[in-house]
Amino acid sequence: MEKDKSTAYVDMRVEDGVFHMVYKPLDLLTIEIAREIVRERVAFKDGISYPSLFDIREVKSTSKDARDFMANEGNDLVIASALLINSSVTKMIGNFFISVSKPKNPTKIFTDQPKAMEWLDFYMVPQES
C-alpha cells in the first residue's frame, strides 16, 4: 500500500511498510503545531502502526513542551522513530533530548537516510499478502 498527503507543516507517505514524514521549513515547532501534526498523522495512518522516518532537517528549533509531547502522547501509531537530522552537533543535542525525554517507543537519530532505513527494517511488521 502506498499513499501520500501534504499539509501546511509536513509531507507524509507510506512506502514499503514505512511511514515517512518530511517537515517543511519551520523556525519553531510549537506545542500547537506539534498537536496539529500528530492529529493529521494519526488520521492519515487509519489506525495502523508503522516504523517511522521523521525528516526534521528543515525544523530550526522545537519548544520543550512540543518535544515532550512528541516523545510521549505524540508517539501514537509509531512502532519506532528514526529522526533524520543534518549535523553531528544536532545529533548530539538530539541524543541528549532522547535520554532526558525517554520516548515511549524506540527512537534513534541519524544523519544518513539509508542507515535510518536499515535500522527501521528491524521494526518492520510482516505484510499480509
Tell me what the structure shows.
By secondary structure, the protein is of the alpha/beta class. It has a single domain (3-121), classed as Transcription Regulator spoIIAA, CATH 3.30.750.24. The protein has four helices and six strands, in the order βββαβαβαβα. The protein has helices at 31-45, 64-71, 88-101, 113-121, and strands spanning 3-6, 10-15, 18-23, 50-55, 78-84, 107-110. A six-stranded mixed sheet has the order 1-2-3-4-5-6, sandwiched between helices. α1 (31-45) runs parallel beside α2. The protein is globular and about 35 Å long. The N and C termini lie close together (11 Å). The model has no long low-confidence stretch (mean pLDDT 89).
Question: What keyword list fits this structure?
Answer:
Transcription Regulator spoIIAA; globular; six-stranded mixed beta sheet; 129 residues; alpha/beta; 4 helices
List the helices and strands and how they pair.
Layout: E1 3-6, E2 10-15, E3 18-23, H1 31-45, E4 50-55, H2 64-71, E5 78-84, H3 88-101, E6 107-110, H4 113-121
Parallel strand pairs: 3-4, 4-5, 5-6
Antiparallel strand pairs: 1-2, 2-3
Helix pairs in contact: 1-2
